[in-house]
Design brief:
Elements (H helix, E strand, L loop, with lengths): L2 E12 L2 E12 L3 E5 L6 H9 L6 E6 L2 E2 L9 E4 L11 H10 L5 H14 L15 H13 L5 E5 L7 H16 L3 E6 L2 H4 L4 E6 L2 E6 L1 H7 L5 H12 L1
Length: 240
């Protein structure tokens, strides 16, 4: 399989604090790759560098065969940040229309993508409301719709289901799996163990290092664990 992301010896510090320490990782095309770990582990910094929003102090990152950061790849990458970046005085539809206008979509394509993404995140009936009136969960759902608006080759989702009810979370994960089956590469950060088990591959991150990585089945077998809480505990002890 083709590698969508190749990360080699990537390190990053902010002042004296080492946030990432010699990260090596490859992510294959058409897979869901999960980064799991506690807050402050380095997951968000890593995905920001994959998007091209930050640069490593050492090492290199290639996405879709090109060294990052690379503005040409913005059309091909959908990014959902941990904090919602929305225009709250605009409606949901106006937000989607604005972000669709940033990409190479004609009017008909933009209309179709707005309808599709709004339906996916269950916001169709709320598109004409101002975002300032949205709940926190609705804002997260709108951010996910925006990440999907240009039909990107790769999705990078930082804690995408925080504040979203269980039924919709399941619907979103079912759609992510469908998108993967269509050939898209999806990177997800999460601290929810049951979501990690839905990924094809997982990297467990703590203190800027990858403790362990592999498929869910491989990790359970390696650490003789029945669930991911146990895997993380065992990996953490061995990594100390």
């Amino acid at each position: 399989m083709t590698n969508t992301v190749e990360i080699e010896k990537v390190s990053k510090s902010f002042g004296k604090k080492v946030v990432l320490n010699e990260i090596d990782l490859t992510i294959e095309e058409g897979t869901i790759y999960g980064f799991i770990g506690p807050s402050g582990a380095g997951k968000t910094t890593l995905v920001k560098m994959i998007v091209g929003m930050d640069t490593p102090d050492d090492g290199s990152i290639q996405v879709l065969g090109k060294k990052m950061p690379n503005l040409e790849l913005l059309q091909d990458i959908g990014y959902m940040a941990q904090s919602d970046a929305l225009y709250t005085e605009l409606t949901g539809k106006e937000n989607l229309t604005f972000f669709a206008s940033l990409y190479k979509l004609n009017r008909a394509q933009a209309k179709d993508r707005i309808a599709y993404t709004a339906k996916l995140v269950n916001l169709t009936d709320d598109l004409n409301k101002k975002v300032s009136a949205y709940s926190g969960g609705m804002k997260r759902r709108l951010s996910l719709a925006i990440a999907l608006i240009q039909n990107p080759k790769m999705l990078i989702l930082d804690e995408p289901t925080v504040g979203i009810d269980p039924e919709l979370r399941l619907n979103i994960w079912n759609e992510l799996i469908r998108l993967k089956d269509d050939g898209k590469t999806i990177i997800v950060t999460t601290h929810v163990m049951e979501e990690a088990e839905r990924c094809d591959y997982i990297a467990m991150v703590r203190d800027g290092r990858i403790l362990t990585k592999g498929t869910p089945a491989e990790l359970k077998e390696t650490y003789q664990a029945t669930n991911f809480d146990e895997v993380f505990l065992h990996a953490g002890r061995m990594g100390q």
